[in-house]
Amino acid sequence: MRTESGIQDGLLKDKSTYEIMRPESVGISRSKLVLGKHSGRHAFKTRLSEMGYDLSQENLERAFETFKRLADLKKEVFDEDLEAIVQDEVLRVEVPDRYRLLKFKVQSGTDTSPRAEVEMEVDSRAVSGAGTGDGPVDAAYNTIAALTGTKSRLLKYSVNAITGGTDAQGEVSVRVEEGGHIVLGQGSHTDIIVASAKAYINALNRLEHMKKEKRDTPVL
Predict the structure, then answer these.
(1) Who contacts 81 (Cβ-Cβ below 8 Å, separation ≥6)?
(2) Given a cut of 70, is residue 90 above it in pLDDT?
(3) Is 38 helix (H, G, I), strand (E, B) or coil?
């Protein structure tokens, strides 16, 4: 009897071995492996690569060991779990704040075009600007992007409530990519727009740190 690990390894080497039809034939761009407690290093590394993470062997081993411990507790391990593992085991470093939020204000409403006014530090120099967008978060991100000059792309944006009630503190997580580098950013605040701005700036700081590390060393 083939194990889960063996089946995943077979799929990675030759999809025709176990796929009775091509995913494209039913409107799916590709088959997606579900990772679990029996998944091996090959499947784990492949999934991380598909998500844009290229880890050194040392970091891969550390992340894999954390993944195995988590997989013992959960039936399935999702992409969000993998992101958290990479965040905790690989990207948890003291990142210098090249960018820092100083002041922030947004305007939005049923008869008002979303507009953001942002004051921040860039390389210890105070800069400010204003911008618009499809919504208050979009306006804030457009303004921050203009002030920092970033060429990055926002891949993912998610909001979670840390506490309950109308005064709940919200936590925002974003995933940002530039030149093949993908980083996660997080921010929390009772004002979800402020939390969004903090998360985006956190991601940009991590991105700058990763780009510097990549220039200094051949691998992450």
Answers:
(1) 67, 70, 74
(2) no
(3) coil
State how beta strands 153-161 and 125-132 pair.
Answer: unpaired
What local confidence, expressed as pLDDT, does residue 89 receive? 67
Is the Cβ–Cβ distance between 141 and 148 less than 8 Å? no
What is the pLDDT averaged over residues 196-220? 79
Question: What is the pLDDT averaged over residues 49-68?
Answer: 86
Between the alpha carbon of residue 134 and those of residues 112, 143, 200, 217, the distances in Å are: 11, 12, 17, 40
Q: Kindly report, residue by residue over 157-191, the tens digit of the pLDDT.
A: 998 765 555 555 678 889 999 988 888 888 878 78
Say how far apart CA 107 and CA 137 lie, in whole Å.
10
Cβ(144)–Cβ(197) below 8 Å: yes
| CA distances for 50 relative to 6, 41, 139, 196, angstroms | 20, 14, 30, 26
User: How far apart, in whole angstroms, are the C-alpha atoms of residue 25 and residue 16?
Assistant: 14
* Residue 102: Cβ within 10 Å count: 11
**What is each CA distance from 86 to 80, 92, 159, 208, in whole angstroms?**
10, 8, 19, 17
- Residue 206 clears pLDDT 80, i.e. is over it: yes
| Beta-carbon contacts of residue 110 (< 8 Å; ≥ 6 apart) | none
What's residue 121's pLDDT?
A: 96
Query: In order of start, what are the domains of the chain with their CATH numbers?
Result: 4-22+30-89 (no CATH), 99-216 (3.30.160.270)
